[in-house]
């Protein structure tokens, strides 16, 4: 195929997109159709899938190494509302990997810095920035209001609290972690596909997870993991492809090898098992 034919094919596809837009169920304007055209061209997304993204409400907990790329890609993809929670401020040591922030943002609340970045990427996205540690009734409320949750936090206690809230509210959860040269991602869909939960994978009475401040982290690992979280979120929201539900994706950046572990629901899990209180 000649390279000269590519613009013609794109024009034909864009014409089809505009014609499909005549469906009154969809509310996209011409600018949105053009902005998201490369996504709408994908048969797994199409007009209907893009409209689902525009109508979606996503909760992201953590605006650091994982939350930065995840939120940026979701905003660029057109997720209609993104709610950010983080109680920290931008520090010089963050800038090596937390790409939503710049040197000028040092001392600024991470959620505000991220909000400003996302609004520059896509002014059409509603970004709600909350500087606080999300817990208790407020956590349950926010998880219940969201179509999907991204766990981009960096400590064990928060991860278990988020997981329990998602199980209680039956809200899909995309979980990621990164440290040193290693990363992992999984998806938990309570009530669907016999999905395990985070507590099926890790015991809540275990040791605190290692963190980047003590062990270090190479910058691109957080970007890779956060980007995969965004991809899994888009797949869940549009019902495209096969998600990581029931699987744990592991990356060893030093050898550049990927592994997948199959996860099973634990009937005795204190959070989602049949014996839970």
Tell me what the structure shows.
- The chain is an alpha/beta fold and 277 residues long.
- It has two domains: 1-46, no CATH class; 56-262, 3-Layer(aba) Sandwich (Rossmann fold).
- The protein has helices spanning 5-20, 30-35, 37-40, 46-55, 67-77, 110-121, 136-145, 156-169, 198-201, 212-215, 219-238; strands at residues 57-61, 81-85, 126-130, 148-151, 173-179, 182-188, 247-252, 257-262.
- The chain has an eight-stranded mixed beta sheet, sandwiched between helices.
- A hairpin with a 2-residue loop joins strand 5 and strand 6 (182-188).
- 42% of the residues are buried.
- Mean pLDDT is 88; it is low at 1-9.
CATH topology of the largest domain, which one? Answer: Rossmann fold
Q: Which CATH-level-2 architecture of the largest domain? A: 3-Layer(aba) Sandwich
The outline comes out as: globular
Structural class: alpha/beta
Strand order of the largest sheet: 3-2-1-4-5-6-7-8
Total domain units: 2
Question: Rounded to an integer, what's the Rg over CA atoms?
Answer: 19 Å
CATH class of the largest domain reads: Alpha Beta
Total number of β-strand segments?
Answer: 8
Which segments are poorly predicted (pLDDT under 50) over 5 or more consecutive residues? 1-9
> H/E element string?
HHHHEHEHEHEHEEHHHEE
Strand percentage lies at 15-25%
Whole-number mean pLDDT: 88
Q: Treating each run of at least 4 consecutive H or I residues as one helix, how many helices?
A: 11
Report how far apart the termini are. 62 Å
The CATH superfamily of the largest domain bears the name NAD(P)-binding Rossmann-like Domain
